[in-house]
């Protein structure tokens, strides 16, 4: 009998290998990748049924990777495994189409359950934040004016690269755009977020979970 195929995405190698060990008794782990861009490419190539991904990863964070995969028609269930307890991250993950949001400190007790529920078409949220998350939906908490959702998907991608220290030339090369276009994206991002310096962009990206300080 063919086992369900799972792809793991996490830039912390020790944790990723631990997750692999946890899953291999029940699932076929088809790959482990370390950044969001690798995740998008591997998911399109390997066609897993489930993706277990961190939220904060280099080059492209997990949430933006999930958005790109959804827009590309990839049907894999995405279960986020993350250290972020703030419900704002969980809401962004669910808005991106996630089927699960598991806190890393609960990985051994919750991840398998989350994957099984995702495969049954359900959504799993770590109980420690589930109540607060559902309350935020009931209260109708809207994204603030400074939400990353004010930016386009491409602008969020460029913002992450800027915050990680990439130059306009490096961004242009990575995204296969011109340097002038990369610089134009930066200017529009700063205008949209009402920020005036690269330092403010970096601080914004950290506050909103676009990059990690790990």
Give a written overview of the molecule.
The chain has 214 residues and is an alpha/beta fold. The chain has 2 domains: 5-138, Response regulator (Rossmann fold, 3-Layer(aba) Sandwich), CATH 3.40.50; 148-207, Orthogonal Bundle (Arc Repressor Mutant, subunit A). The protein contains 10 helices and 6 strands. The protein has a 6-stranded parallel β-sheet with strand order 2-1-3-4-5-6, with helices on both faces. Helix 4 links the parallel strand 4 and strand 5 (100-103). Helix 2 runs parallel beside helix 3 (62-71). The mean pLDDT is 90. Residues 144-209 form the HTH luxR-type domain. Residues 5-119 form the Response regulatory domain.
Task: Please render the helix and strand layout as text.
Layout: E1 5-9, H1 13-23, E2 28-33, H2 36-46, E3 50-53, H3 62-71, E4 77-82, H4 87-95, E5 100-103, H5 107-119, E6 124-125, H6 127-138, H7 153-163, H8 168-175, H9 179-193, H10 198-207
Helix pairs in contact: 2-3, 4-6, 7-9, 7-10, 8-9
Which spans of ≥5 residues are poorly predicted at pLDDT below 50? none
Number of helices: 10
| Main sheet makeup | 6 strands, parallel
Under CATH, the topology of the largest domain can be stated as Rossmann fold
Let me know the average pLDDT.
90
User: How many individual β-strands?
Assistant: 6
Class from helix and strand fractions = alpha/beta
Specify the CATH homologous superfamily of the largest domain.
Response regulator
Q: What is the 3D form?
A: globular
Protein name: Oxygen regulatory protein NreC
Keywords: DNA-binding, Phosphoprotein, Transcription, Transcription regulation
Domain HTH luxR-type: 144-209
Modified residues (4-aspartylphosphate): 54
């Amino acid at each position: 009998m063919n086992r369900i195929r799972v792809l793991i995405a996490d830039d912390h190698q020790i944790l990723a290998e631990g997750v692999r060990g946890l899953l291999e008794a029940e699932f076929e782990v088809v790959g482990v990748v370390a950044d969001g861009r690798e995740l998008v490419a591997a998911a399109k190539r390997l066609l897993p049924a489930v993706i277990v991904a961190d939220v904060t990863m280099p080059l492209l964070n997990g949430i933006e990777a999930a958005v790109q995969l959804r827009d590309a028609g990839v049907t894999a269930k995405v279960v986020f495994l993350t250290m972020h307890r703030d419900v704002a991250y969980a809401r962004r993950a669910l808005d991106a189409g996630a089927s699960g949001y598991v806190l890393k400190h609960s990985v051994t007790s919750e991840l398998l359950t989350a994957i099984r529920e995702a495969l049954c078409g359900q959504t799993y949220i770590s109980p420690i934040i589930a109540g607060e998350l559902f309350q935020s939906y009931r209260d109708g908490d809207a994204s603030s004016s400074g939400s990353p959702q004010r930016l386009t998907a491409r602008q969020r991608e460029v913002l992450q690269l800027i915050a990680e220290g990439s130059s306009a030339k490096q961004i242009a090369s990575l995204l296969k755009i011109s340097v002038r276009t990369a610089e134009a994206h930066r200017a529009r991002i700063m205008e949209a977020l009402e920020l005036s310096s690269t330092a403010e962009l970096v601080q914004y990206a950290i506050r909103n979970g676009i990059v990690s300080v790990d």
